[in-house]
Amino acid sequence: MVLNGEVKDYEKLRSIILSKGYTHIIAIDGGANHLYKMGIKADYIVGDLDSIDKEVFEKSKEHGIEYYKYPCKKNETDSELGIILAIELGNMCIDIYAALGGRIDHELSNIGLLYYILKKGVYPRIISETEDIYILENDEMAIEGKKGDIVSVIPFKGDANGVTLRDLEYPLEEFDLEYSTPRGISNVMLNDECHINVRDGCLLIVKQK
């Protein structure tokens, strides 16, 4: 799912998206502009279509891309509507691109969408050219990367209790992370994979590439 946030390196992001082999690519309104610049065809375009370039929209119709147009005044954001469509299409994982940068309110709400998706039983990630953002609640996760990658673990929604970090320079064992404190910032991967567990609570995990 490609949003209308910041893209700094189209070539690099294009390479990331194409490497994933997605079943469906959904452009959220102006996200279609990003895909057009990368030469990637969307399967669907969703939103009130107030941010998509006229030329891009006309070409998308010529190429038979299916679009869902909604009124500007609505309860759901365009991104929420895209998530609903992605789940209806049967996707059990949703990667979100161009979710960061630009307006801080949009950026924060897009990060919050990770929990919105997780509650629906679907696995979400935010992916950019420079970082990946994961969410973990009462569960464990292996993060793949490279030795030396920076990983930050941030309590989300409240305190995160029983946090265990392995294969990181600063390990933890059943540690309680207090919400709003930066104790878990800027850890370092010791191998090409690290392991994170939270017994009771929710974590945002940010891996710098």
From TrEMBL:
Mind listing the GO molecular function terms for this protein? ATP binding; kinase activity; thiamine binding; thiamine diphosphokinase activity
Record keywords: ATP-binding, Kinase, Nucleotide-binding, Transferase
Question: Can the keyword S-adenosyl-L-methionine be found in this entry's annotation?
Answer: no
What is the superkingdom listed in this entry's lineage?
Answer: Bacteria
Q: Which CDD domains match?
A: TPK
Listed PANTHER family: THIAMINE PYROPHOSPHOKINASE
One of the GO BP terms on file:
thiamine metabolic process
Domain Thiamin pyrophosphokinase thiamin-binding, residue spans? 145-204
* Top-level EC class: transferase
EC number(s) reported in the record: 2.7.6.2
Listed name of the protein:
Thiamine diphosphokinase
What SMART domains is this protein classified in?
A: TPK_B1_binding
Q: Which NCBIfam families match?
A: thi_PPkinase (TIGR01378)
Which InterPro entries does this UniProt record tie to the protein?
A: Thi_PPkinase, Thiamin_PyroPKinase_B1-bd, TPK, TPK_B1-bd_sf, TPK_catalytic, TPK_catalytic_sf
Q: Does the keyword Metal-binding apply?
A: no
